[in-house]
């Protein structure tokens, strides 16, 4: 049998420092209360338009002549509102009652669902003679092997 295993030592608790140990080349993390520095946006490669100071000697600002304001047109007064607007169209006049025609019950029956007959096909026209193929040549009739009188 195997000898009994020696009892393991319980793990020793590591000594806790106030600050975590960091390698000397990495800085310690900043406390969370301090605001982070704002990231600067990358400047465009070249400005889209030159500054106004550079434009001034070459292109003085153009002042357009101001047009005089047109005189105001007098507005028409609003018509007074009527209490009841007139109807747009007159009410329909009652039609005189016409006598009801007697219904034929045969008209109410549905006709059978039959499709109309297909029109007959047009007969094909004969092809012109210059397009027709020549008639097949038959071999010449062979003479009878012996005269009919000699038949047994």
UniProtKB/TrEMBL annotation:
Highest classification ranks of the organism: Eukaryota, Metazoa, Ecdysozoa, Arthropoda, Chelicerata
Q: What is this protein called?
A: Uncharacterized protein
* Comp. bias (Pro residues): 58-99, 125-152
Question: Where is this chain compositionally biased, Basic and acidic residues type?
Answer: 1-28
Q: Which domain of life is it from?
A: Eukaryota
The biased composition feature labelled Basic residues covers 115-124
**Region feature Disordered, mapped onto this chain:** 1-152
């Amino acid at each position: 049998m195997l000898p009994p295993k020696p009892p393991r030592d319980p793990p020793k608790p590591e000594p806790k420092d106030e600050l975590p140990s960091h390698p000397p080349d990495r800085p310690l993390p900043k406390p969370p209360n301090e605001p982070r520095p704002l990231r600067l946006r990358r400047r465009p490669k070249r400005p889209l338009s030159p500054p106004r100071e550079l434009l001034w000697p070459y292109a003085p600002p153009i002042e357009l002549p101001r047009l005089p304001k047109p005189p105001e047109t007098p507005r028409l007064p609003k018509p007074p509102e009527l209490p009841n607007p007139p109807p747009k169209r007159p009410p329909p006049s009652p039609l005189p009652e016409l006598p009801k025609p007697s219904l034929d019950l045969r008209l109410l029956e549905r006709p059978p669902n039959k499709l109309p007959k297909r029109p007959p096909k047009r007969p094909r026209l004969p092809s012109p003679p210059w397009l027709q193929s020549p008639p097949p040549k038959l071999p010449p009739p062979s003479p009878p092997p012996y005269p009919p009188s000699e038949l047994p």
